[in-house]
Predict the 3D structure of the following.
Amino acid sequence: ATAIAAGGPGALFWMVVAAFFGMATKYSEGLLAIKYRTIDQDGHVLGGPFYYIENGMGKKWKWLAKIFAFFGAGVGLFGIGTFTQVNSIASAVKNFFDPDMAHTVTVLGNDYSIATVIAGILLTVFVGLVVIGGIKRISKVSEVVVPFMAVLYVVLCLIIVFTNIKAVPGAFAEIISSAFNGSALAGGVMGSMIVAMQKGVARGIFSNESGLGSAPIAAAAARTKDPVRQGLVSMTGTFIDTIVICTMTGLSIVIAGSWLDPKLEGVAITMDAFQKGLPFPGFIATFSLMLCLVFFAFTTILGWDYYGERCVEYLFNRNKAVVKGYRWLYILAVFIGPYMTVAAVWNIADIFNALMAFPNLIALLALSGVVVKETKEFHAKHKGSY
């Protein structure tokens, strides 16, 4: 929604293009995560970019691994992990319960809906309960919530597409033409095409995290011992996140024309599209989207706490006191998130994403020969089985 609002429908085209190449990046990350992970005497899995930098590129590159870990912890606290997710949840709750800001309270000199304040407090409490409970509780919550939210969201988007099937060819035509000719709202052809491309690629990376280095931290904990198999599994995440889910969202927004309303931003654009596109009363459509978005964002918050903790563990040699301090800072960032503007949270997230991705991309390029070698060996070994 934010990509289309800023760059026009063409941004969706560039999101898909970025995801197509991002699948290769994610494959490499998953493969290297398994190949270079280490498991200590307690059975504690240590893996991710810091370990494939240190173990793959050599000890002399440990400084690069430390830089990645530092910015990775920052992305968790100030980027994808907290501010954007919490802000989206608070916006969705406010748009459902108090769209006209009829009930407000003043916080630090600014007026906020009571719904925003209550949502922020409840979210902080729930995140705190899960985060303090540790990784096993994170996985238990996620394995129940993630499949449910994904199926519900896909079903809702498919209903919009099929009930407006005649508008689908026109929507695709607008997305493709806008990708190269630009959007009338964005100015001249060349300038608007660059805006569409920039917003599409930035939001695409945000949705699937290809190249950031976050996914291999989770991939390293997988039970598989085959690096190539994990690479193949990891790349499906990019396909589902962006090429499936984001395309469905973008189609819904373009079909409804919600992106044309300058008064709408962030999740409000998608909510407007669901209200116009779903053959249900407006409050049912809004409630359904709010539910999906809360689940999407909540599990992302939990996942990024795990990534951030692993980064802090590496930086401070698994100092438990520092990790515990990071958890409390993380909870504090969740509490702050609802009171920031949409523009501010996305700008902060983009800056930290870039800082985190840079050392990881250097490592992927340096170890690309390893990826090719492992892949060739895997295909030679399994040639007769597929």
